Automatic annotation (TrEMBL):
Protein name: Mor transcription activator domain-containing protein
Domain of life: Bacteria
Lineage: Bacteria, Bacillati, Bacillota, Clostridia, Lachnospirales
InterPro entries: c-mor_Regulatory_Protein, Homeodomain-like_sf, YraL-like
Species the sequence originates in: Candidatus Enterocloster faecavium
Length: 93
């Protein structure tokens, strides 16, 4: 999500109307429902997290303990358990 200067995108009369409700503050304008994008599609974050989670699962299968993985990846034990559980479920389907 990027920020745009209202004076660059809104006609002056509309900007004045908006300023009557909210003056000098940030305003989030949601996307039209048919144009919404899934989380992570605009950046590489989704792919990077999936790759990290695959590494975590591979290390777990290689004998690493969940506690050690939590420390190594700066995640809670519950997060490691969730990641391992998701990959086990995917692999067993």
């Amino acid at each position: 999500m990027g920020y745009k200067k209202a004076t660059h995108v809104l006609p002056p009369e509309l900007l004045l109307q908006v300023q009557e409700y909210i003056d000098g503050e940030f305003l989030y304008i949601p996307r039209i429902s048919g144009q919404k994008r899934d989380w992570g599609t605009a950046t590489s974050t989704r792919r990077e997290l999936h790759d990290r989670n695959e590494r975590i699962y591979a290390e777990y299968l290689g004998g690493e303990t969940m506690d050690a993985l939590a420390v190594k990846y700066f995640l809670s034990l519950k997060s490691i358990q969730r990641i391992v559980g998701q990959f086990k479920k995917e692999r067993n389907q």
